[in-house]
């Protein structure tokens, strides 16, 4: 671990993850990189350059990609890892994490989250504010569990799938990769086709 953390992305999501880093109290200095040259600081933390500048800091900093957009987050995180930069995970001190839980690199776990025993969370995921993921779940890489979402036991959420705010997934349900689950939706059966799903219980509105 280095004494400097560089967060890539100085907008809304970047702010929240930088705030987690502040609360973790592990880094002496936290700064941002952002491709918008007009952004000079965020929450009082300096923006020191653009995304491409990350590689010049390779041996001097830890890195976190604070970008909400899944495709962009994945692209940047994969590039940083390929180049051997040290991508870390950020876990808010006010979370409850059970025994035998794995959390992948580049994943953010926000305030008020509960993750129960034997759950595996992949890399580059967002486990957002006050969501709860119960026992024996598998949350695949780059998935996003939005604020207040709930998954029961033995749920699987596919690569890059997004559970909207306040959605609920019942026990033993598998949701494939490439899905968007709408705000407040309830998933009670497996979803095997990518698409956008809304309602109680969910129905697909777009492929
Ligand atoms: C599901 C969702 C992705 C669809 O977004 P969209 O493609 O822009 O769809 P639209 O807003 O055009 O809505 C299409 C239709 O579905 C309805 N709809 C959209 N989201 C809905 C939801 N969550 N529950 C019920 N109905 C919904 C709309 O009312 C609209 O109905 P209509 O055709 O009868 O007017 C979006 O509405 C949603 O729920 N996003 C979640 C946001 C979120 O969780 N943010 C957290 C960020 S941390």
Automatic annotation (TrEMBL):
Annotated substrate binding sites: 11-13, 34-35, 68
Record's keyword terms, sorted: Acyltransferase, Transferase
Domain named PglD N-terminal: residues: 4-80
Keyword Acyltransferase: yes
Record-linked SUPFAM superfamilies: Trimeric LpxA-like enzymes (SSF51161)
Keyword Acyltransferase: yes
InterPro entries for this protein: AcTrfase_PglD-like, Hexapep, PglD_N, Trans_hexapeptide_repeat, Trimer_LpxA-like_sf
Binding, acetyl-CoA: 144, 165
Xref: Gene3D superfamilies: 3.40.50.20, Hexapeptide repeat proteins (2.160.10.10)
Catalytic machinery residues: 135 (proton acceptor)
Annotated site location: Increases basicity of active site His: 136
Molecular function via GO: acyltransferase activity
Pfam families to which the protein is assigned, alphabetical: Hexapep, PglD_N
Superkingdom of origin organism: Bacteria
Protein name, entry field: Sugar O-acyltransferase (Sialic acid O-acetyltransferase NeuD family)
Species of the source: Paraliobacillus ryukyuensis
